[in-house]
């Protein structure tokens, strides 16, 4: 496993070691000991989530104000532009975002720590995203920040009008969002 730093030190790209031959490939998508050795983090995942999206579907920016979830995100079919936004008021990177392309082809994963809002744009039809979460889903604590908030100015690689859920269309502007201390 290789850890690739991003512009926000707490957000990391995790690149597994892939073994491939004429039969296909094999890789270990997660190993708690190796992850701890490489990052210094101990994580306990309690929930796995799986979504399928058409091209141009944009999900997010989601977070839980209590029971904050760390997420290890990967793509098993298709590709996404994955985004993490630091919403920890006390952080030197508060209000900054980082984005990267995750795909079935590159097999990279993104570690989104607790304290971040998360969202992604599906780049192709039939994209399937899997992510492990460090806390259970708690709808009463779920919050959403507008995906196109002008203060955040996320550079989504849009090639068409995004398809957005009703819930995400009424997300809070970043300046009014409930954030972590």
What general form does the structure show?
globular
- Helical content stands at under 10%
Overall structural domain count? 1
Instruction: Count the beta strands.
Output: 13
CATH topology, anyone? Jelly Rolls
| Architecture (CATH level 2) name | Sandwich
Q: Report the average pLDDT across residues.
A: 97
Strand content: 35-45%
Strand order of the largest sheet: 1-2-10-7-12-5
Biggest β-sheet strands, sense, barrel: 6 strands, antiparallel
What are the secondary-structure elements, in order, as H or E? Answer: EEEEHEEEEEEEEEH
Q: What is the fourth-level CATH superfamily?
A: Jelly Rolls
How far apart lie the N and C ends? 32 Å
- Could you name the ranges where pLDDT drops below 50 across 5 or more consecutive residues? none
Radius of gyration: 16 Å
Give me the number of helical elements: 2
CATH class: Mainly Beta
The secondary structure category is mainly beta
Set out the fold topology:
Elements: E1 2-5, E2 12-15, E3 18-21, E4 24-27, H1 32-39, E5 47-53, E6 58-64, E7 71-77, E8 79-86, E9 97-103, E10 109-112, E11 116-122, E12 127-133, E13 142-144, H2 166-169
Antiparallel strand pairs: 1-2, 2-10, 3-4, 5-12, 6-11, 6-13, 7-10, 7-12, 8-9, 8-11
């Amino acid at each position: 496993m290789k850890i690739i730093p991003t512009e926000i030190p707490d957000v990391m790209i995790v690149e597994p070691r892939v073994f491939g031959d004429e039969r296909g490939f094999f890789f270990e998508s997660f190993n708690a000991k190796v992850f701890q050795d490489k990052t210094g983090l101990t994580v306990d995942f309690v929930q796995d989530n799986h979504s399928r999206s058409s091209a141009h579907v944009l999900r997010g920016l989601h977070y839980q104000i209590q029971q904050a979830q760390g997420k290890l995100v990967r793509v098993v079919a298709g590709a996404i532009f994955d985004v993490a936004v630091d919403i920890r008021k006390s952080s030197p990177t508060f209000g900054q975002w980082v984005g990267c392309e995750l795909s079935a082809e590159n097999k990279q994963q993104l570690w989104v720590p607790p304290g971040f809002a998360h969202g992604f744009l599906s780049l192709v039809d039939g994209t399937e995203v899997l992510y492990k979460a460090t806390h259970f889903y708690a709808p009463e604590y779920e919050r959403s920040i507008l995906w196109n908030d002008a203060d955040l100015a996320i550079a989504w690689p849009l090639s068409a009008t995004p398809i957005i859920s009703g819930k995400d269309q009424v997300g809070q502007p970043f300046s009014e969002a409930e954030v972590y201390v």
